Amino acid sequence: xxxxxxxxxxxxxxxxxxxxxxxxxxSLLPILMGxxxxxxxxxxxxxxxxxxxxxxxxxxxxxxxxxxxxYQVTKQTIITLLNNQNKKGN
Length: 90
Fold this sequence. Notes:
Elements: H1 2-5, H2 13-40, H3 50-89
């Protein structure tokens, strides 16, 4: 019964900050960038011109870059947490 009544431990402040940053990089920024492009450039009738296509491609590449950057931050944070947990366990 004692184990059930224990409150779960929260993560340290810097880990929470890193995970929040990674979440924003992986999900919020690419969605906002896509919504911006859709609202500004994609209007009916859509005329294909090289400038708008280059802008759409640039935004898509930046979105992919930010998503990958968020993944790397998450991966680094999780690996650090696991290494610290293994050191405490030994």
